[in-house]
Amino acid sequence: MSIDDSEPTFLSDPILQPAHPWPVTDIPSSSEASFHLLADALPQIVWRMQPGGQPTYFNRRWFEYSGLSWQDSLARGWSGSIHPDDLVPVDRHWTEAGSSHQAFEVECRLRRADGVYRWMRCSTVPQRDANGSFLGWIGTLTDIDDLRQRAELLDKSLYLGRLAGRVARLGGWTIDLPEQTLTWSDENCLIHDVAPGYTPTLDEGIGYFFPEHRPLVDQLVKNCAENGIPYEFVLPKRTATGRHIWVRSMGEAVRDASGKIVRIQGAFQDISDQKLAEDRA
Q: pTM for the whole thing?
């Protein structure tokens, strides 16, 4: 493993055993001891590396996570525990950093002592002396595996929700108060024949209803926003393309911790097929 000014190839070169198992630094020993105490108290893995790529320091968290000895850690570095599928993107970042000596972040999976790979965020910054000369690298490895799993579950949940909304022809909406900012879900946009992500004004949203029904809709929305009174109704309306549909609309108030109404939210369901079936019956 080597990072030098001419050929920065962090992962592709053989790993060299450092001649001295201490950090390359001009910090006084008392400050160095304080650094070690602080690093050992952190939940993240902390490491240091010489300009040529040789590891010189790991905090206690590294040994707990990796199960490696001090000698093996110095010989292999943390790169020896990277998941094979993540080697190429990590190597690319290190190659760029070796040339520029700039800070960077990269995410990769790192093997734990029991053989399980967990996602880590590697944050790396260059160390420099008072004259700005490059001394090496210092970085942290933060376990983000649980966060990534929650994000993946959320993505799946959102996808299933969107899928269910399309099947049921159900779209959501919110009105933030006091600004009266109306937001439509993508499914609601599709119901109204506008592009996903379209943001109508509140007046425009109510304007999709026929003129004779707008005062009723306006009053229901106002009572919900001011007094927290929920509502539900079935009315016809016209989409952005002029298509006539029937919708079931529901709305309710959302309050903050003090009880103040900060938003109203609800849903539209396109029930045109249902109404057509009822008319034919």
A: 0.47
